[in-house]
Specification:
Blueprint lengths: L3 H7 L5 H7 L7 E3 L5 E3 L2 H6 L6 E7 L9 H14 L4 E5 L4 H4 L8 E2 L2 E4 L1 H5 L5 H21 L6 E6 L3 E3 L9 E3 L10 E3 L1 E3 L4 H8 L3 H10 L1 E5 L4 E3 L6 H7 L7 E5 L4 E4 L14 H10 L2 E5 L4 H16 L5 E7 H7 L12 H19 L5 E6 L6 H13 L3 E5 L1 H4 L5 H12 L14 H13 L3 E4 L1 H12 L7 E4 L19 E10 L4 E6 L18 E2 L5 E2 L3
Parallel strand pairs: 3-16, 3-17, 4-15, 4-16, 8-11, 17-18, 18-19, 20-22, 21-23
Antiparallel strand pairs: 1-2, 2-14, 5-6, 6-14, 7-12, 9-10, 12-13, 14-15, 22-23, 24-25
Length: 555
């Protein structure tokens, strides 16, 4: 069986100028990054903004398992399938972070015959957007520490500096550090740490901005520290927003690539959904909706994380709503949720499937809470039995949900035509989209609503520090921002060991962070880390480049 990278390397690509032309883009609308990648100029939006919008389809999933679900593969395959059945479809994905690429999962550009290409470039440095995010973030951090060193005219309390530094690799040794050691010439000693770049507020602001000047305004609002008398200090106070925005002048432009079947793909922005909001940029999504009949995008991890944040954060700031939602599942993953060990998932086990189906049931309920019609994409594996497949399809039918078998990994767009037709029916059937909570609710009420309605928790327990910060944020006027909960992706609860549809648990909020520039409040639950670590055998150990320039081992 060929690896993903072998399939990608063997498939001929269309010149990106031809892909752009298929969307009606002109020569001066695109900026080339080689033969197969381009950025789309922001002036294109001015020409498109008054056009009718195409349908927006969100792809989400059940709670992830080691068995894999195939959400990105489904997104790519669905876009290809929609084109096969006569719709002009575009897909939108996040840019892969180098942290996971060299960490536990390898590449993140789809799989099999449903990939975006050139996959090696996309999984590595791509067009440099994440580097720009990292640099802009660390420029702000450098200006902050320089301000402290040069006399601290703003009266910043070094014990209340909330801005950390960022890098796009998994590096647990940098989670907590001490700065400024070595004497007076090296700055003011204080505790700090690193977050992975995709958890940076700069990345979130990039993906939620509507244009370059909106991004600049968001940068101005980033709170970096507090003064001795408790007043917030912003990037604007440090006069940093202009130079930060300059560093992002190219990164804000959407990246255009293609799938293995030539379907246009925007890949732009890369916030994680377990520690950030988990969706590609509003700029790319809105542009895709104007250029095609269908814009298919994904939200990270399960519907309790990426989809909830897409609905309650992205849709608010982007003034848009999905016309249909695809929930990806596999028989293997559902059996894993039902207690079957990973090594035994190839064996028939209807009992484990019956127990594990509760996770899919909950995620479908979550989508319906927002007034949108879900469709289940059941990624088929050769070891799935007809009895197991029929069980899932019938259970979905009893919930009033269409379920389509998908073989897009093995067959590309041809394996997703049934799914495409059911998505079209759902999207054209209309919906009654609504947010989960009004912004006017107190912060704790919004957090409780998410935890109880979406996760199924009994309640929320706050650390003393989290409780103090929430009270302070409301006093400072930040109480009406939406909520972004950072928690494990491996459970509906904040405990990764609780599989399926856990009950009788509380969510433990140990820390609260303000992302005023991005426009949300982050509640950190359980033991989730904003800087991941490498596993015992990182993917980097198996990634290499040959003398010929051929890349191997990248998934």
């Amino acid at each position: 069986m060929k690896s993903d990278i072998e399939i990608a390397q063997e498939t001929p690509m269309r010149p990106i100028i031809d892909v752009a032309a298929s969307l009606g883009l002109q020569d001066d609308d695109i900026e080339f990054y080689g033969k197969y990648k381009a950025k789309v100029a922001l002036h294109v939006w001015e020409r498109l903004k008054n056009r009718p919008s195409g349908k927006l389809v969100l792809v989400t999933a059940i709670t992830p398992t080691p068995a894999g679900e195939g959400k990105t593969t489904t997104t790519v395959g669905l876009g290809q399938a929609l084109n096969r059945v006569g719709k002009k479809a575009i897909i939108g994905l996040r840019e892969p972070s180098l942290g996971p690429s060299f960490g536990i999962k390898g590449g993140a550009a789809g799989g099999g015959y449903s990939q975006v290409v050139p996959m090696e470039d996309i999984n590595l440095h791509f067009t440099g957007d994440i580097h720009a995010v990292t640099t802009a973030h660390n420029l702000l951090a450098a200006l902050l520490d320089n301000h402290l060193h040069q006399g601290n005219a703003l009266g910043i309390d070094p014990r209340q500096v909330v801005l950390r530094r960022a890098m796009d690799l998994n590096e647990r040794a940098l989670r907590n550090i001490v700065l400024g050691l070595g004497g007076k010439i090296n700055g003011v000693p204080r505790e700090s740490g690193f977050d992975i770049s995709v958890a940076s507020e700069v990345m979130a602001a990039l993906c939620l901005a509507t244009d370059l000047m909106d991004l600049k305004e968001r940068f101005k609002r980033i709170v970096v520290a507090y003064t001795y008398d408790g007043k917030p200090v912003t990037a604007n106070d440090l006069k940093a927003a202009g130079s930060m925005t300059l560093l992002m002048k190219d990164a804000i432009k959407p990246n255009l690539v293609q799938t293995l079947e030539g379907t246009p793909a925007f890949i732009h922005g890369g916030p994680f959904a377990n520690i950030a909001h988990g969706a590609n940029s509003i700029i790319a999504t809105r542009m895709g909706m104007k250029l095609g009949d269908y814009m298919v995008t994904e939200a990270g991890f399960g519907a309790d994380l990426g989809a909830e944040k897409f609905f309650d954060i992205v849709c608010r700031y982007g003034a848009m709503a999905p016309d249909a939602v695809v929930v990806v599942a596999t028989v293997r993953a559902l059996k894993n949720h039902g207690g079957a060990a990973k090594a035994d998932l190839h064996k028939p086990n209807l009992q484990a499937l019956e127990i594990g189906y509760a996770n899919l049931e909950k995620q479908l309920e979550n989508v319906k809470r927002f007034g949108v019609t879900p469709v289940v994409a059941l990624n088929e594996f050769p070891t799935d039995t007809s009895e197991e497949i029929d069980y899932v399809i019938n259970r979905c039918r009893n919930m009033g949900v269409d379920c389509a078998l998908s073989t897009v990994w093995a067959e590309g767009g041809a394996g997703g035509e049934e799914l495409a037709n059911k998505v079209i029916a759902a999207a054209e059937g209309g919906n009654d989209f609504r947010f989960l909570y009004p912004l006017q609710l107190p912060i704790k009420e919004k957090i409780k609503t998410i935890c109880q309605e979406i996760y199924g928790a009994d309640g929320v327990i706050y650390s003393g520090e989290a409780d103090r910060i929430i009270k302070n944020l409301e006093q400072l006027g930040y109480g009406e921002l939406p909520i972004c909960i950072a928690k494990t992706q491996y459970s509906l609860a904040d405990n990764a060991d609780l599989k399926g549809r856990p009950q009788g648990f509380d969510v433990n909020v140990r820390e609260v962070r303000l992302s005023a520039g991005a426009g949300f409040i982050v509640a950190i639950a359980g033991n989730i880390m904003t800087m991941p670590g490498l596993g015992k055998t990182p993917a980097a150990e198996n990634i290499d480049i040959k003398e010929s320039g051929e890349i191997v081992g990248l998934f």
